[in-house]
User: Fold this.
Amino acid sequence: MTKEGSDGTDLSGAWKSLSKALREDEKYPREDVALEGIRDQEYRTRDRCLSETFFTSRVVTIPDTLFAQYDFMTCRSFMGLMPEINRAWISIDQRLFLWNYASDHEADFHSFDEMQQVIVAVGLVQPAKGIFLDTITHLLVVATPVEIVLLGVGPSEENPQSLELLRTDLKAPADGILFTSIVGTINGRILLLDNEGRIHEMIYQTEGQWFSRKCYLRDLTTPLFAKLLPTFIPYPLTGTVDHIVRIVVDNSRGLLYAHTEQSHIKVFCLEGYTQGTFELLQEFEFSNSIQASITRGSRGRTAIKIVSLHPIPSQTDVNVSLVALTSSGHRLYFAPTSKYRPSDPSTCEIRLVYIRHSGRSLEDAEVHASCYSRGTNLMAASIGNEMDSLITTSIDPVRISYTGGMMIKRYTELMESRPLDGRVWDIVEARGPLNPFTVDLLGPGRGLFVDDPAILGNELYTQFQYSCRQFIVLTNLGVGIVEKLRPVDQLIRLLATAQVQPSHFDQFAQIYGNAEVCAMCIAILCGHFNGIEGGNRSSPMVSSYTGVMDQTRLMLAHLAGRPAYDDPMVSTSSPPAAQPSGAPTQSTGLPGVVALATPTDVRYSARHQGLVLYISRILRPIWQQRLSNLCVTVPVANLSSEQSVYAVLRPIQDQLLGIQEFLESLRVGMSADMSNIHLGDQADAWLRERKSLEQLAQLITFSRESISFLLFLIDHRVKDILAKSDVAAQKTFGTMTFESFVVETEKSQALRFELTKSLVMMVGGDGAPTMTQRLPVDTVSESLYQRCPVLYAQDRLGLIKGNEHLQQALAAQDGMEVDRLLTMALRHYTLSLDQMDLSELIRVTNCFNAKNFHM
Assistant:
């Protein structure tokens, strides 16, 4: 296919560079593939002054008002996190407090003090559909030994940012049972675990039935005959009871995982079962061989137990379904026994595929709380009576490398450790808007575009699309916000230090490579800095905006390098083969050996390669998307269809504008550099790089204006525009990708013309539908030219203006007005004859004949 811009500019070089960068990034392996070659104890540490991976951005202490409620000698208190609503819950005897840790106001908390007994467990779940008002977004489940109460949670009418607790009159007797944890499913089921290892379900419905109440508990794990035994007869009658101690839901597969005191894992199937029922699919035994494999590398440890389970959603990894964390910090990876199929519960059974050993920081520690998500692991280990240590591990993206074009199937992990004041109660990942790690993935063609799991794991690849991940650590003293810094965040922190030196530039480049660091520098100079820390330039993370920008320019100049030709050594005992006329050659001083410099041997500078990396990663989310997917999407994450599209396209468009401005400044700088170059082959390399940069600039321009055109269609109801277009245009629009729309000139230009013609007809016709931003018919061309001045250059507006005047003439009633409009239309058509095919000429002629217009 032809790779030309709308003005005939050759884009093949820019297109090839971009495609190559995209292919290289897509070679990044999935986590399960990388695990195949990982080595035991392979953890690395870095100099925190150069590249700290985790950063505590904020510490919020529990408000004094809540501390005043404690009677440390007699009260019973529990706490936990609810990231879905940005709240921490704290129970003090029979009182419950929901504390907004994200608020700047110390007294931002709700209290609920209507319980008569000590609160022993609290959970936040999604409500079942059709039972509650739409204003209730979650259910708060509060359990005491006497009863379990459901409270509705929703935004306040006065302030949507605030929460309101609503009484539902739904409660069930607890019959003296002490519950330890409460979890929920996406379809509204509520599951509770008691201190004797039994799993219960809280059944709730709109109305009571003949043999059941409106709200009641059902024991799911005790057999029916055991329920008929007198209370003084224990069950089971013989043997040791291995109680379940923790449960967790995998909503993507419809499963409930549980682990016992002896670290056995049970898998229950919820999918396809009604309220009050489930099926035990499998019990995986924590065998002696597994215990021995773990203790073999753990000095002085004899008893190691599983302390937490972390389901891996099927949308993010089909080959790893569960990660279990032990008290020693070891991670056990489980995979499905066969390819997961929702209709076949047997595919949900698991098998142990890998044991990841802990590092030296955990040799003597006892892990008691953790959070694992997408290769990132945070663990709390006890180091004293009143202190914990936070140990973090994460994938080191630069240690997954290539050999002979093949990806090495192994990676290393980075490990950091820091002390914490207080004892950790809970660790969760914060939920942010459109965050791919926390928002449920929807699948291809359903709303926002879903990245391949391997791509999501490549932080170098995604750092310019997604904000840094945040984790919340709850202790008995307060909340700490721990950020997982992207490489660009690490660079900004380095550049913000007052003592930064050129030697630090080289040390940072040794970690990530010159091209990657240049890509980060370009991102900062193009305005990506404004997105760091939510655009707060005065945040503790960055001390001086101006200073960072100045240091970034210095670092980019220091690492940019120069384009040059490779010197392939061609050994021959005869005279070298004839070279094309004008091809540069360079003598090596060795008999019969000539270094040939051909156009394909040019090695672009690190600055050029970094720019290609940055552009490819900005365009990647939409580059291979069909136009129909880009323009027509379903509402997601509380956004309308149009808002969902704008949430994706607008930021990309803004970033492309920043790149254009950077390229303009770079063009001026390269002209100055060229004046100091005298060697022929070196000058030719600079010329080739400058030509490549010009092509990249053209590609950016066409991409920006193509996005503007698509947004213009969305503003004016793209479905209605397509309905008035011919079948060929509809088919092309449904199959053409954004990449083709940018680089395939003839097809994209024809499609734009047909859609524009349909828009003119729709706006000017009788009974035109109401539009979000309706334009007068004679301003469509001007509006398109303002948005897309290159795609709609003045010499290409003739057809559009001719169609506008023709459409107005067909709708006009006054004879003189019709003649005036047709005369103007004819003038525009006459100037655009070379752009009109035969079918278009016939259509226009027929319209003129219908109005009896003859010249």
Remarks:
- The first strand starts at residue 43 and ends at 44.
- Residues 433-448, 531-543, 568-599, 766-774 have pLDDT under 50 and may be disordered.
- The chain is about 35% helix and 25% strand.
